[in-house]
Specification:
Elements: E1 5-10, H1 18-26, H2 34-43, E2 48-56, E3 59-72, H3 79-88, E4 97-103, E5 113-115, H4 122-136, E6 142-149, H5 153-163, E7 168-171, E8 175-179, H6 185-191, H7 194-209, E9 213-217, H8 224-237, H9 248-257, E10 262-268, E11 274-283, E12 286-294, H10 296-299, H11 304-318, E13 323-325, H12 331-336, E14 340-342, E15 344-350, H13 356-359, H14 363-367
Parallel strand pairs: 4-6, 12-13
Antiparallel strand pairs: 1-2, 2-3, 3-4, 3-5, 6-15, 7-15, 8-13, 8-14, 9-10, 10-11, 11-12
Helix pairs in contact: 2-9
Protein name: GNAT family N-acetyltransferase
GO molecular function: transferase activity
Organism: Corallococcus exiguus
Amino acid sequence: MSTATTTRIHSSIQHVPQALWDEKLAQGHPFKSAAFLSCLEDSFPERKFGYLVMSQGEDVVGLAVITEERLDLTLLMPDRVGALAKGVRRVMPGFLSLGLGMVGTFETAQRHWWYDARKLSEHDFAQALLEACDEVCTNSALLLVRDFMEGLPEDLRLQSWFLERGFKPVANHPMAMVTLDGMSSEEHFQRLKKKSRQNLRKKLKDAEALGFQVERVRDFRPLIDACYPLYLQVHEGASEFKRNPFPRAFFETIAERMPTTSSFLTLRTQEGQLIAFILTGTGGGVHNPFLIGMDYARTEGTPAYYLLLWKELEHAARHACRVADLGLTSYFVKQTVGAELEGMTMAARLQSPWLRPLINPLLPLLLSEKQPEERRRFRVSTPDDGQQPPSHKAA
């Protein structure tokens, strides 16, 4: 006799089986974990969170995260439009903003769902996911289901289910991933193509000549006051993937709730002045440099970014991580250090049945992200040239 499936939607990750969430959905990724999502909930109280939990008797057979918020469209427009909108919003609070519902969050990537294919059909899970979106995203004009990995047949099948129901495919930024699978940083360096090795060696030697000092800090709470303005510099200067900034309290919450998996990698001048940092998560075989902050006046024209990325890869290799998730954007540098670009797509649909026939066909053009050029990362032949990256103070 088959067991009936029950569906519940919870407003907080605290009401979801967190160990199962970390195993099945986060799959060890520190910044997709239940602890991380609790930090997001507290940092963005204006955002609505919904967690789909599907069960058969005592067994959980499906999980997903759904969010709803107001998307500030001026983040996608020239700065002068944003300045104008601020004035108009004094009398029209919703001016140039859009109710956006998502399967997923802006801060996480790749799959935002899991289901047990032995006990639940693809159709039943997708139907329940769509119904949950309708229940959670009551004020959304646009719905996004993200992210489908282009290299995974099961993801493409699930995406097809949504496309058959009026959604349109939208290209997201690709993920920059370095697969290590037990390699040391020296072994990874040796497999890079010759031009990348030469470029990276020069950058690291230049950093050493400048006296740059890197340090990994576990309890980074005393550094938040100094680091947060550096994060805002990078956030305000971003030309891709713009969104609302994290509040300062987000860093404090991460430090308190993820003390064993989070850290700061800091960069200082020879005189000891803090000029850059990366908020990083390590756990479950995944290493993820998540947020960066930099003093542009002191780092522009220097190899600071190359140095920080390479130290993150060294850390990932030292801790036997199978993969380093380098995230989105800045793809040229990330491919130089060996990152593969993994394509991601989304399914998008207007919620209004009246506007859908007119606007839905335009969504791929309006919402798709420009895809970066993919470059060859590794050498064609395998002989060792006998050269290693220059040593630097360990992080």
